[in-house]
């Protein structure tokens, strides 16, 4: 069995952002030379996410609106976590809903997706350096 570990780095210009990372992940799989296995992609920060869904701009805007209704950023004094001097409690909650990681099968050296599936990095407390782990394991 072989494995390859690589990190992707992000610093989004906005507090909330969704970045399609499918091509970057596929490139790492190709570099790994693994033909059959799995690919783990996970956010290494507790205010960001990795998830699989459709790359449709309206849907991504819907995610942002929906998450803001579930866990609004303001007023920030509504969150106990923000009593620590932080103002990102909502980002922690948004990450919990969207998830930490995605695991995708690798078949014949390619991400083995269903129709329309893509891998996204979700940022909920941006404008600072963050990273995502990509680990490909297989033969």
Q: Can you put this structure into words, describing what you see?
A:
There is one protein chain. With 139 residues, the protein is of the alpha+beta class. The protein has one domain: Jelly Rolls, CATH 2.60.120. Helices cover 25% and strands 38% of the residues. The radius of gyration is 16 Å and the shape is elongated. The termini are close together. The mean pLDDT is 98.
Task: Sum up the structure in keywords.
about 140 residues, about 25% helix, five-stranded antiparallel β-sheet, three-stranded antiparallel β-sheet, alpha+beta, 8 strands, Jelly Rolls
> Order of strands side by side in the largest beta sheet?
1-8-3-5-6
Q: Examine the secondary-structure arrangement and name the CATH architecture.
A: Sandwich
Distance between the termini: 5 Å
Q: What's the assembly state of these chains? A: single chain
Low-confidence stretches: none
Proportion of helical residues: 25-40%
The helix-and-strand class reads: alpha+beta
CATH superfamily: YjbQ-like
Give the arrangement of secondary structure elements.
Layout: E1 2-10, E2 17-20, H1 22-32, E3 36-43, E4 48-54, H2 57-70, H3 89-98, E5 101-107, E6 110-111, E7 117-123, E8 130-138
Antiparallel strand pairs: 1-8, 2-7, 3-5, 3-8, 4-7, 5-6
Question: What would a concise description of this structure say?
Answer:
This protein is an alpha+beta fold and 139 residues long. The chain has three helices and eight strands; from the N terminus they run E-E-H-E-E-H-H-E-E-E-E.
């Amino acid at each position: 069995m072989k494995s390859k570990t690589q990190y992707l780095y992000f610093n989004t210009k906005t507090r909330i952002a969704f970045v399609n990372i499918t091509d970057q992940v596929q490139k790492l799989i190709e570099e790994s030379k693994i033909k059959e296995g799995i690919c783990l992609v996970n956010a290494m920060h507790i205010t960001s996410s990795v998830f699989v869904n459709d790359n449709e701009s309206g849907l991504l805007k819907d995610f942002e609106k929906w998450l803001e209704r579930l866990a609004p950023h303001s007023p920030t004094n509504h969150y106990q976590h923000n009593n620590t001097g932080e103002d990102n409690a909502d980002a922690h909650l948004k990450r919990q809903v969207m998830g930490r990681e995605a695991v995708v099968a690798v078949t014949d050296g390619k991400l083995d997706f269903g129709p329309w599936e893509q891998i996204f990095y979700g940022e909920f407390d941006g404008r600072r350096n963050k990273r995502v782990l990509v680990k490909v394991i297989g033969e």
